[in-house]
Amino acid sequence: MLPESLSKAVAGQPLKIAALVSVGQHPLSRRERQADQDSRAVELALSLSPQLPSLIHVGSAQNNALRAYLGMGLNSLTVLNADPDADAVPALADYLRDQPLDIVLTGVRAECGEGSGLLPYAVASQLGWPMVPRIVSVVSIADGHADVWQALPRGQRRALRVPLPFVASVDPAADPARQSAFGPAQRGNIDFRPCAAEPDQARADWEQHPAKPRPKRLAVAKGGTAAERMKAATAKPQGQGGQVMTEGTDREKAEAILARLVAEGVVR
Amino acid sequence: MSLRIRRNPRLERIRRNRLHPEYTALMAATVPAIGPTGLRRINPHQTGFVMVQGRKRLNRLNPGGVGFATSSQPGQAQAKEKPLHSVTDPRGYVAVVMDLPGGRLSSHDRDVLGLAQQLAQAKDDPHAVLAIALGDVRETDLGGAGADRVIQLSQLHTEPLTGYCPELKLSILTEIEKHYQPAYWLFPDSIDGGADLGSRWAVQQHERAAVQAWQVNKENTVCRGGSQLTDWHRPTPRVLLLAPECAAPVEEYRYEALPLELTPPEPISATIEDRGPVSVDPSQIALSEAEFILAAGNGVRNWDQFHQVATVLGATEGASRVAVDDGYMPRHRQVGASGTWVSARVYLAVGISGAIQHLQGIGQCETVIAVNLDAGCDMVRRADLTVIADSEAVFAELLNLMTERQTGVSHQSDTADEGEARHVA
Ligand SMILES: Cc1cc2nc3c(=O)[nH]c(=O)nc-3n(C[C@H](O)[C@H](O)[C@H](O)COP(=O)(O)OP(=O)(O)OC[C@H]3O[C@@H](n4cnc5c(N)ncnc54)[C@H](O)[C@@H]3O)c2cc1C
Questions:
Q1: A55 lies in which domain range?
Q2: What's the rounded Cα separation, in Å, for the pair A23 and A69?
Q3: How far is CA B63 from the centre of its chain?
Q4: What is the pLDDT of residues B83-121, one digit of tens each?
């Protein structure tokens, strides 16, 4: 179902949306899979326009992980054929520049490899389009502008207005992707296109290692005498034993609670 | 008069015995001597005490304050002691663009400032840490967090820098780059805006930024890769987006935090327009993300009233397992070991006894407020404020208080002065 304002906006001319998809990996088994954030981007694209979005992948992968995106109800996927260590940004920018597109959606960070989250910014900058990070939904589109909601910490949202065309990354708080169906995924068409992608020179001399566990920061007691430091290190953290209110009427008690809530800034 | 030193066995005995009632008074009486230059001198023969076997013992508790600095108010004493670290003529800068959520330094900001000081010290010629604060600043002690120089702008050509305005901020950073050419640009890689601004800045500068960097020195940087599964070892670039706890915050010194001049850049027209925060229905916020949770347990009977209170307070609803098992609340609202681990800043627990499985789930909450009939239950021990009262009565009064706040009228009809009530209305 399209939101009403959106269906009106797109009645004349359907929105043209592209989603950039990558191959993800399962965090535990490390099997290749459909990347979660990219699937949410595809889901958002599907919900925005009656015209099917185009899916674009740079690489040489031809596996079930990539096909799983087709199982979400799409007919075809474009693969820009490139080496695994090629720089995807110029290839993508060259391809997208020639397409009549309104919105390009991506995930925030890739699940494999560097996962820096810089790609949408770099692509947007090469195209000269604005980039909106971490959107959760597109609320309406009117006279060449889109109203989008951006995810903030603690489940808060912010409304932004951007001119079309633009690039946006889709936050993990957006709607989860629909189930991928196996049959359509196998039947879907993968359209390979040659592209002249240069190898990523900047990354050539970097080394990749399995992640080392990061040390936990300990609260070290500083200063004082040795005895004081010893006491601070060994003392059991006691329940601070907050204030207990037994006396008073119910109203006074409720006032105390409300005063605390106001002091903490959660009730205005 | 003979010059023979006479011993006082009684005093010696007291000096040996820390539990003696006169011990503290005696030790306090031995005042430290002041030498001719005004320095405090310690007579090593008088510190400690001699055991009966003739062995000398030192007492590091040092109640008389001889020989050691007393720390009766440790925080104050340390703040006074910290020496000032000053960079008089910096040859270069290490720029830190702080997040300052709510105008205050986050712990992430402090970590990044700590790393900036490390990088500045590692340089051969003197470098200063340039802290850049864009937007409202309510933090007063930037020097204590490691800022040698500060550039603070809360607006640009009458455009406020609060809210979402990455393009305005980029134009300011460009201006800073033009004047000061920092050796490094450091950003906290955070959802509070640092990751976004840092990525934009890296792309604009054609720098391959280190993202999620967690181990940084002058030559090498280690970054976390996708899904936190790989580490990338690479040379340290000029633009770094740093993970939390990338370095320890500064501790030993105070820093100057001298304001620097900056001519504001030419006004630009931003393409992305901030239309303000969206009022989010708190019941739609996922429990693990919510900032303020009102949770109900077995001590709540009137569930309609509970939902009403959650609505007027603007709280996200949570529940204990018993309330969920009894069918009063959906499973995805359960807090605790077998439910959701919440990170709310304020957690208001009504009629919850505080079983360990429940307390585990609220381990990260900063402020816990409890309403319970039983003053001896575990939730009371965990809570910062406890009210011993019936849940239904407290809810009713909370509803009254909130309606009064919204309308500005007192409903406390029987006790309120009538004239005053009319005046308020
Ligand atoms: C394997 C396992 C996993 C579990 N996981 C969870 C979990 O994830 N989350 C969870 O919550 N529990 C969990 N539990 C259950 C847990 O052990 C407790 O049984 C449960 O938390 C108790 O819920 P309660 O505090 O609401 O109820 P009770 O223990 O019954 O406490 C009710 C409290 O309300 C007070 N009260 C009663 N009437 C009133 C009134 N009128 N006004 C004010 N106060 C009143 C009482 O004094 C009492 O303190 C788990 C248990 C097991 C065995």
A1: 4-204
A2: 10
A3: 33
A4: 899 888 899 999 999 998 888 898 899 999 999 999 999
Rounded Cα distance between B385 and B379, Å, is 10
> Strands B385-388, A243-245: parallel, antiparallel or unpaired by DSSP?
parallel
In chain B, residues 309-348 whose CB comes closer than 8 Å to chain A: 313-315, 345-346, 348
Check: complex ipTM more than 0.95: no
Of A33-42, B12-21, B228-237, which gets the smallest average pLDDT?
B12-21
- Cα R_g (chain B), whole angstroms: 30
**Number of structural domains found in chain A:** 1
Which residue range(s) make up the domain with B360?
A: 284-421
Of the candidates A160, A158, A93, the one whose C-alpha atom is nearest the C-alpha of residue A129 is A93
Residues in contact with ligand 1 by the CB-under-6-Å rule are B 297-299, 320-323, 334-339, 351-353, 355, 357-358, 361, 371-374, 377, 390-391
Task: Return phi, psi of residue A185, to 5°.
Answer: -60, -40
Whether the Cβ atoms of residue A133 and residue A123 lie closer than 8 Å to each other:
no
Q: What is the CATH number of the domain that holds A57?
A: 3.40.50.620
- ∠ CA A242-A245-A247, nearest 5°, is 160
What mean pLDDT do residues B207-212 have?
94
Atom of ligand 1 at shortest range from CA of B335: 9
Question: Residues A36, A37, A42, CA angle at the centre, nearest 5°?
Answer: 95
Decide if B9 contacts B15 (C-beta within 8 A).
no
**Tokens at B167, concatenated:** 């393009």
